Amino acid sequence: MTKAHVLLGPAGAGAAMKLAVNAMIAVTNESVAETLALAERFGIERERAYDVLAGGALASPFVLYKRGAFLHPNTEPVAFTTALMQKDTSLAQELAARLGVRIPAAAAAAGVLEEAVGKGLADADMAVLSLLGPSAGTDPLTTDDDITEEP
To answer: Residue 48: inside a domain, yes or no?
Structure first.
C-alpha cells in the first residue's frame, strides 16, 4: 500500500494505521467533493475548479490521482467504493471511541458516505460524493454581488 515499509509497533498497529489513513482519505475526499459542489453552485466549471485544487497548495497525490473520478464519475473505473470507505470510516470511529480520541471530521465524512450508500451508490467510486452537491435544476449564482463579505 505504500512504497516504504514502516515498523509501527505492536500487533494491530498496521490495521489501526490503515483505518487512520483511510479516515484521512475520506475527509480529503469529502472536502474535494464539497469544494466542487460549492464552486459549481456558484457557476464555476467543475474542471476549472479542479485545476485550482490540483495546481495550488492543496495539490496532493490523492487530489492528482482522483481527478478523473471527480471529473468523469460515470466513465472512470472504480478505484475504491463508497461502501468500502464507509466501512473503514465506521471502523475508524469505533477505534477512536475505544481509545477516547475525537475524530469529528472523519465522523462527518462517514455520515456523507452513509448517505451515499443509502442512495444506492455503494458500488460507485467514493468520488461520487461530489454529485451529492447542488440540487438539480437550481440556478448558480451569477454575480459577485450575491456574495457579502464581513469586515
So the answer is: yes
